[in-house]
Amino acid sequence: MRSPNLLALAAAGVVLVGANLVPAALRAAPVAHATIAASAGGAAPDSAPKRRGQARRAETGRGETSRGGTTRRPENRTAAAVLRTSRAVLGAARLESGAQGLRVQRALARLGSRVNTSDRDALRMAFRAYYNYRAAHPENVRKPYLYFVDYGLDAETPRGYVFDMSELRIVEGPFTVAHGRGSAARGGVPRRFSNRHGSEATSLGLFVAQETYSFSGRTGGRAYNSIGLRLRGVSGRFNARARERGVVVHGAPYVTRDGAGRSEGCPAVSPARARTVIPRIRNGGMVFLYSPHDRAWKSEDPWANHGKGRG
Predict the structure, then answer these.
(1) What is the pTM of this model?
(2) DSSP 8-state symbol, 306
(3) Cβ(141)–Cβ(133) under 8 Å?
């Protein structure tokens, strides 16, 4: 099996030492590099003199005594400092940790350069939410497809995609997607989001795609019919009322290649696109609606941040 994240990690300035990931910035600090290399089972170039010095200190019983009377060796303080520095560098590089983090990095490496997004957090949050939720509720994620919309882009810009998360490829998109009339003016970038009844605004976060039904709507005084896809919001207070509000994926004649009109909060697509997207993701696919303009949601979405939502 391929090592999934070497390209992404190299671009972020990370090198492999033994079995550990070490930021390249730490290589400039000889003591830090030696400490991490030793912990990975390797030997740093100047490790022999340090071992002799440590042996002399051990023979003479030297060390620092803390207020509690326990001995705290200088090398332990160095290791702790290196660990703190390593974490800070990894955090600044926005690298993920753990099994889910590795999946996120792999998905970003495969798909990131092929997707037009409003900012660098868009795909990272989408993939993090998807993998966190799938790990917690595998029984609900019965299909490998993720319908992603970046509402940091305006309605005239294609901002929707469908990803195959098992093969990490784009299967649909980019295509135009509507936002709620309560979120922005026609053709603009949505900046207001709501989970409230009657808001006619888009809700952000992660949704489970559920069953389909025969959808009917009206636009410009004319009725139209389409297939509709019910959504269950799983991002807590940000979208938990989606199903009872009637927020669904559906086809609408006001969505064309050139731009999208406004819905009542639904991530609607063109009628032709609905006929391909909806059957693909129904009954177990996922939907993620993103925007950089809602700070509360960005910092508090349970799946995109902590992976501890109830689902």
Answers:
(1) 0.71
(2) I
(3) yes
